[in-house]
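The passage that follows is intended for readers who have already worked through the single-chain material. We present the inputs for a multi-component assembly, then the predicted structure in tokenized form, and finally a short commentary. You are encouraged to pause after the input and sketch how you expect the pieces to fit together before reading on.
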Amino acid sequence: MKKLIVQKYGGTSVANPEMIKNVARRIVAYRDKGFELVVVVSAPGDTTDELIELAHQITPYPQEREMDMLLSTGEQISCALLAMAIQKLGYKAISFTGLQVGILTDSTHTKARIINIDTRRIIEELNKGNIVIVAGFQGVSQNQDITTLGRGGSDLSAVALAKVLGAKLCEIYTDVEGIYTTDPRIVPEARKLKKISYDEMLEMASLGAQVMQARSIELAKKFDIPIYVRSAFNNRRGTYIVKEEKKMLEGPVISAVTLSRNEAKLTICDVPDRPGIAANLFTEIASGGINVDMIVQNVSHTGRTDISFTVLKPDLRKTLKITKKVAREIDAGEVIYDEDIARVSIVGVGMKSHPGVASLMFSALARHKINIEMISTSEISISCVIRKKFVEEAVRALHEAFKLGKK
Amino acid sequence: MKKLIVQKYGGTSVANPEMIKNVARRIVAYRDKGFELVVVVSAPGDTTDELIELAHQITPYPQEREMDMLLSTGEQISCALLAMAIQKLGYKAISFTGLQVGILTDSTHTKARIINIDTRRIIEELNKGNIVIVAGFQGVSQNQDITTLGRGGSDLSAVALAKVLGAKLCEIYTDVEGIYTTDPRIVPEARKLKKISYDEMLEMASLGAQVMQARSIELAKKFDIPIYVRSAFNNRRGTYIVKEEKKMLEGPVISAVTLSRNEAKLTICDVPDRPGIAANLFTEIASGGINVDMIVQNVSHTGRTDISFTVLKPDLRKTLKITKKVAREIDAGEVIYDEDIARVSIVGVGMKSHPGVASLMFSALARHKINIEMISTSEISISCVIRKKFVEEAVRALHEAFKLGKK
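Having made your guess, compare it with the prediction:
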């Protein structure tokens, strides 16, 4: 299919009828340029949170199948309204739920994985001249049950549709103008990037940047689908997320500084240092559905050691319970936790070929007398856990040290 | 299937999480008595009106396919929440949209007709021990588009499911306790009926009683499915709607007095009295999607006559426009209208075999000096149009004249 674009509009851009009309005007402007369009929409504004609240008034632990049934209505509402708004402008449009359009997933309710998309109906409607609107975030399992794809799942719907339809570009319209070298609210000199590699974006997403869902970037990377992140509220240029290029390697060593205040640190003290202990602990935590982020275990000289790790704050209570149980079983000491931490990270594919990046990071923090409590590294990122109150100072220090600001 | 009941809960009984929990308790009480249950729910409270309002903020004339896509979310929300509430009580439940459960309709969006229901999934889930919750008011067309069944369509969903599943009873839970001899707010002596025939109920529905959708009663009559109308808020006995029985014929002549304040009268004056004139007029009005209720044409001695008819008030403006156009075309006189009218009707299968019912009605009104402006009759009802200000007095007079009150 030639000249087909997939566009995705986030919940903040379809929060009310006026905004939906604005989105419709944007879409038909593309249509006028001769593009075929498949548009993915999220639920309007706070609808998803309101539906979750309704469910929790019924029961603290709603069954996940019913939760998907409930939550999928949000996107169905916005896609019907958007189709109406486009029709009002005199263009042909038709809306579909995930089920209707054949977004087949496994049956892992609330975080289903896409297996396949049946493109027949979409292509049929495109051929009739329709702008096709698809409810994001949702699919259907083999036995016709509605599933959802996890928080931010509309991004995944958009990328997956771009893949199966052979679209040349997947545009993500959101409430920020693109990807920045760091949070512009903290560092006014932060620069919007023209492009960034999938790997860097993935790393940033997992390190706290909330622009796009990590799974959707993985999928885009796997099938090499270019993504263009831009504002739903103005026409300024955004940021392309693309395959890593030679040119990019010769570019800046570091692309961005990210931060996260949403983690808590746990430490099990006085752990017997024998094989299998860590495996035991983290298996139990994983089976509780909790993602552990950084893990640090010191080399032990005494036969006993401390293990520290971080989890997302909402998971802290559940993690504490599991960790205390495991600590008793393995005859370890007390379990302590700390919510006053933050993480700063630097991300860049350039660090693969540039030595000395870590030492530059550590020196910059040291100059500001910011103590580093945990360190973890990946091939293209370095993260430090520090006291939460220093996090903005740390971000500014690193943004300056790596010369990321506007010229 | 033995001991299967279909229950339908109206929007006012599932308006918020507390009320949904109450409905869940009712349902599991039936389960405890050994019944298999298929439960149809309407959208919570004012949800449907709120969604319509959203659509109208986008466009005054939304496309009907998209309207169905939008409105069907209301029932999806309540059926998911109800399933959660039942599960919370420790019982097995599963919810379905009309599409998922295979309620196949034609593609007349916003007022689709049911063609067939695929019962396989419902029976499968009943056999697994589930209470099956089905979103009312909605179905799916042959090409997988979501359709809705018109206002009050959840009643139709319930009756149709009772039919295809071979249920012995279809219970309609609503915000009134049953069918009364007349509106108890007007006549405190009004009596709740133990049973009423399909035909009488149909007549009452079309004469202004809003307890149940007329199409659903037609369907129940066609397949002889007993309906039990009762309150969702208490356990008092309600009213059975059943096939006309011999016993009922020997019972009271008149079952109920109904009223409607929602009509307006139009008169075309000075109409040339030649064949085809009335056909012409009412064909044009019907093609505008307007239902005409009563029609009166006086016998003409002069070669010219007056034609009066009533329509629902919301249709008055549109009807006036059409009628004036036709009046010009046929060379008739002026078109006048009157919104200050009301209709009182008496309904009862007994009048088929009892002469003198009409004269008793007219005399009762005459005793109260209430002038009759139009009369129309059916096999089991007589309606009179009167001045609106007299309507409550007329209802009380008729209720007394036919001795319908409590003994």
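Commentary: Chain A touches chain B at residues 17-18, 20-21, 51, 54-55, 57-59, 62-63, 65-67, 69-70, 72-73, 76-77, 79-81, 83-85, 87-88, 94-95, 97, 99-100, 121, 144-146 (CB under 8 Å). The mean pLDDT of chain A is 91. How closely did your sketch match?
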